[in-house]
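Worked Example 4.2. Consider the chain below.
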Amino acid sequence: MASPSPRIATQRAVGDAVHRHGNLSKSGVLERTFSLAFRGLVYAQIWEDPVVDMEALEIGPDSDVITIASGGCNMLSYLTADPRSVTAVDLNTAHVALGRLKLAAARHLPDHAAFQRFFARSGQRENIEAYQAYVRPHLDEVSRRYWEGRDLTGRRRIGAFGRNFYTKGLLGQFIGGAHLVAKLYRVDPREMLDAESVEEQRHIFETRMAPIFEKKFVRWLTQQPASLFGLGIPPAQYSALCDGEAEGMAAVLRQRLEKLACDFDIRQNYFAWQAFGRGYGDAAEAPLPPYLEEAHYGDIAGRVDRISIHHRNFTDHLAALPDGALDRYILLDAQDWMTDEQLTDLWTGITRTARPGARVVFRTAARPSLLPGRLPQALLDQWRYEEARSEAYTRRDRSAIYGGVHLYVLKDR
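Applying the procedure from the previous section yields the following structure tokens:
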């Protein structure tokens, strides 16, 4: 029997992770709608702060890292910490194709200027020429078919790198929709980019943006779980976000946007540029992810062969590894999707493959760690939760969209 196509395999795998209710129930319909939406590109840029990750994980030359690939930014940024290896896995075909495109570009584009232009600058037709000359010959067949295939508008997907790639994907479309809603109330989110101080950022947020969340239409819109699929939030995660919040999702989103707008200097926060400007700034001093900074280009290009990327489930990948194979794990927010059984399978695999001193970082939509009461106590007792440090990392995560960043360290056995 022929193997299913990557797209069908992706949908099945995402469905296994997300589907918890019957097909005809309200929750079941939402879950299946989400898994259908998740078949394509979701994150053109990953939304976890790699600087926080690298500090929490204490990555060094002896580290073997495993992470969920998502938009592929952080797997490359981790190379700046000089790990021995980085393994990236993802269920999403588009994310795997994007990760492999970035690896091929890091290996074969001629210099930093070409690499940064490809992934940081919009409206650059030279990127398509660079793809044809330097990247395409080195892409695997599946990834090449993806990028040279057509999107729903009939355009080749690779053509997005000649326009503004960061408007693509579910998240890019969600941010575009948020900009349209803001403009209905005569607010342009790009105003935030002109702020010259954190104090001015707060003034713009409080006087221009915060009032939008009080509008009746916005409050109604954010009460619809499907409206947040563009953030990559499945129904179970939506419920976790709203749990205990009397004013509903509008209040949660307001709080997260306030942190993004007011807690960090926008001139040093590329996540804010993506949210308020729909891309990276064109100025030479505009903030960028570590992997795109000129100071790190030599490390990225010289170490890119340490990365491997796989189209598969995280837990399944761990099951194929020997005991003690890894010591650094990044789970993003994937556990928010999981049942107790799936969490137990995942952490059983982590614990078996973990070397002494292993560290795990993950994020949650709600603030608390979701592991207590859900993992078997005998399994959880093998790990130490770094509560104070986790609180500090949560405050410092510049993406600002998560309720909690959590660090667990393997106890001495």
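Residues 1-11 have pLDDT under 50 and may be disordered. The two ends are 46 Å apart (CA to CA). Compare this with Example 4.1 before moving on.
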